[in-house]
Amino acid sequence: MKAIIFTLLTIATINIHAANIGKKAVRIKTMSASIEWVSINNLDAKLKKEPRKVFIDCYTNWCGWCKKMDKSTFEHPDIIKYVSKRFYGVKFNAEQMEDVYIGGQTFKHIGGEGRKGYHEFAHTIMNGRMSYPTTVYFDENLNNLGPVPGYLKPSVFEMILKFYGENHYKETQWNTFQSTYKSRIDDNWTETK
Prior knowledge:
Helices cover about 45% and strands about 20% of the residues. By secondary structure, the protein is α+β, with helices and mostly antiparallel strands.
């Protein structure tokens, strides 16, 4: 009798777990919205047509934290919505080989350092501090507002986007803004949806 009850409980537990996994996967798969990433080579044209703030996600193919930020932060629905209204987002492989022409300048790949060398555009906008991921923020005229190195969870990324996107940086020090900002973003959203 104990063996039968144990077997039934085990089967029930497995079925409940399998059902929850299926529901979670369906919800994630049905989310179709994403950040509309702009190519670095098309950024000048986009800015001329419709000026917006810009953020550039500097990443590498081997960077685990870059991949985590892609999955958690850049796929968050609130981040996608905010970026689509106020920013152009650019993904830039900091080790890419192709030349970049932006703001009247050409930037090239520099070989020999790092795992695969580095791109001088990434080196320039990251102020020579090559760590990944690094998100670099710009105003509508491509003035560099500053790089922020490291993985940024959705609530922190939202705070930085609003600091620059709503021009708080023009009147408020970062430390003051950060101490008073209250995010409504759930950083564990992928686990709870």
